[in-house]
Design goal:
alpha+beta, globular, NADH Oxidase, 5 strands, homodimer
Chain lengths: 198, 198
């Protein structure tokens, strides 16, 4: 568990096309369990993993997000991926979550200052665990960008999100739609993420 | 790489006491490399890892942080860990970083909306890689809480942080000061981080 682990960590790459194949419960639960064991600020453990496999719910969320993004305008300095969502929604037919077997939303307490980073650690653990199980995954930020949309929040409350919670991240998870059925493990080269030694 | 991986992920626990023993460059670089291979928003790769092994620099940062926290007051609703730093600094002799072999600050572009979560994924990868190498590590948030302190930022600029960057997280890394020399791998039970299936 060292050189092997480094090579494994370096082999994780995002998947954005999934087979219409459900996940075995054991695999899904292993991914969720890996996420639950991420560290949290002061051991707060307040990340709430909302796991959506229901196709109607996924379709409804996609439609609500499309409506919300289509009502926005691309502004100067808008985060480029969010601007992409706005443009795609205006064109129509925009499905933000890539139709995965499961969309896992990470919610957390809205008045907890470590909410965003705690969710990020949960997501990173889940991405690594997915890779270990030959599953594909990709970070999904759209529900976070829309986490002050009253209609979407009302719908998420109806699904089990608490009034005190908001969504701070998400993960699309499923079997990758590739020729060999395995995730693409050729990571993009790291030209950034520079290191300064002192 | 599946059950083994889940058990491994579940075995990570924070270390807050370190031996005064430097890290082999190969191990330090493996941890940094694992961090560099974390995903980033739109493949931005703008996390800047500032690795501080110099004892004088570590002491200077500790003194500056103590001064900054001591000048604050604990307020209603202040994040409990930050309130703990303020109280400890007022008592005196507060060293926020646990005197590790290396303090790795994760900086990122201040006007990039994914800065915080990109740094969190880098940190989570580094914590897992540290565990794989029998090293101990713990998330360090104090330099993030102080990332609008002009004196501290000026000092960090002198160390190589760019004017456009701010610190969004940190990691203390080193050999754990335990009886067997290995990190404590008995994770705290997960009673929170609940899962809702839909």
């Amino acid at each position: 568990m060292n050189k092997e682990m480094l090579e494994f960590i370096k082999s994780r790459r995002s998947t954005r096309k999934f087979l219409p194949k459900p996940l075995e419960r054991e695999k899904l639960d292993a991914v969720l369990e890996a996420g639950r064991y991420a560290p949290s600020g002061g051991n707060n453990q307040s990340t709430h993993l909302i796991v959506i496999e229901d196709k109607e719910v996924l379709a409804k969320l996609a439609a609500m997000a499309e409506k919300a993004f289509a009502a926005m305008e691309v502004t100067e300095g808008m985060y480029k991926s969010m601007a992409g969502s706005v443009r795609a929604a205006k064109r129509g037919g925009y499905v933000f979550h890539y139709q995965p077997a499961a969309l896992i939303l990470t919610a957390n307490q809205k008045d907890y200052s470590n909410n965003l980073v705690d969710c990020a650690c949960v997501l990173e653990n889940m991405m690594l665990m997915a890779n270990a199980l030959d599953l594909g995954s990709v970070w999904i930020n759209q529900m976070k960008w829309l986490n002050d949309d009253p209609e979407i929040n009302a719908y998420l409350f109806s699904l089990g999100m608490k009034e005190s919670e908001r969504v701070y991240g998400g993960l699309a998870l499923g079997y990758p739609d590739t020729e060999d059925g395995l995730p693409n493990r050729t990571a993009l080269p790291r030209t950034g993420n520079e290191v300064t030694y002192i």
